[in-house]
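[Q] Does anyone have a clean structure-token version of this?
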Amino acid sequence: MPIQPRLDAAALAERMADIKPAFSPQEARVEAARCLYCFDAPCIASCPTGIDVPAFIKKIAVDNVTGAARTILEANVLGASCARVCPTQVLCEGACVMLDLEKKPIEIGRLQRFATDHVSERGIDVLPAPAATTGRRVAVLGAGPAGLGCAAELARLGHEVTVYDKKPRGGGLNTYGIAYYKMRPEVSLAEVELIERLGVRFRFDCEVGRDIAVADLERDCEAIFLGLGLGGVRRLGIPGEDLPEVLDALEFIEWIHTRPLAEVPVGRRVAVLGCGNTAIDAVTQAIRMGAEQATVIYRRGEAEMSAYGFEYELAKTDGAAFLFHAVPVAVLEEAGHVSGLRLARTEVRDGRVEILPESEWTEPFDMVLSAVGQEKQAGLLESLFPGLELDRRGRVVHDPATMQTSLPHVFAGGDCTSGGREVVNAVAEGKKAARAIARQLTGEQPADVGCGPVQHSRHGVAGGPTGSGFEAPVRVHELEAALGVRLTPS
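[A] Here you go.
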């Protein structure tokens, strides 16, 4: 039978509440006072946008919260979103030296949220629009984190920017695809409004290639930035996948962001296919939305899942079940609706997943959420920009220092270049591209291009690290893997 909403608005408001509630002013000051304000602060080296973390925390400690927000937003215009959705455990907090002292890092993400919420709730603009413009025009395709990061930086440098997006609202996955208990869409939409106040123009419900031609953009603009992200979720290629209760996990998450919670249907028994961070978001939200049972099904083993360990632990705490070394071979149907999955056992041999013969069995489910990865937009990009070079995986080939593509007037960033990274990485790549575009348009180079922001403690110091992760951020879990050691507590 068709799936239905399962809980009332009051129950959902409680179950979908913020997983990391906002600090009170007293809590923020106490937490800020714990910071050691390191000379070569590893938290900055681990931030892809190079936020001067000790500087903003010190400002909170002395009750200069507006100044703290300015420090954050000057480095990362989506600082409010990133405060909520960044995997701080593998970025800034994972690099905190307090882990070596008492095993509890400074709660940088919550402090960042405290500062950015302070100015947002009071209508304080800490990023003034430029007094004059250069008259140079740039088109940004995609209003997700990469496009917004690029547009904001270009506007602050005085250029005229128009952002095109096929969705009715901006923000990309920040608005439509983040777990609701991590961030409400209103936070992302407020950031879009902040960027609009910088002078950026937005054209929503506008798909390039359909509603406006690339030739028109190239005629009217001197540069184009591609922040198109990824395409739809890959098809499963199994019988029954077109049944109405088989959904992309991102589509289910979008329902939660665009409908009243009490009107969002969810199954009693939900299967989530895949084991990345989107799968974790989907299974956890399904449980919180009222599913009686929700199971993640993954064709490989626990050690091979791409989801972060802390996300995995959260899902288990919420009651999610995990079925490893299993793959669906068919979606079962009853009266035109999902009734279950036929599954098979798998084994990994020489890195390849193989289905074991005579290992099939069935499990009852009434909803299936697919989170097996998104397609690259290779076909779209090739049709819009003939001559644009893509790699064998469908990602846009680019210069990592400037984000310039094989077409000199076209720059790119975000998931269409990386294949899927964090929001903060996308913002940094958009900002890096904006600076390269500005240099191409005017011949002038922003003061910190090529080195990123410099810690205040390093001003006047000759040589040595700049203390910024803007050019080459350190990701703690990747560093651990490279060194063969664990730097953070398990």
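[Q] Thanks! Anything notable?
[A] The chain has three domains: 21-127+447-490, 137-231+381-414, 246-370.
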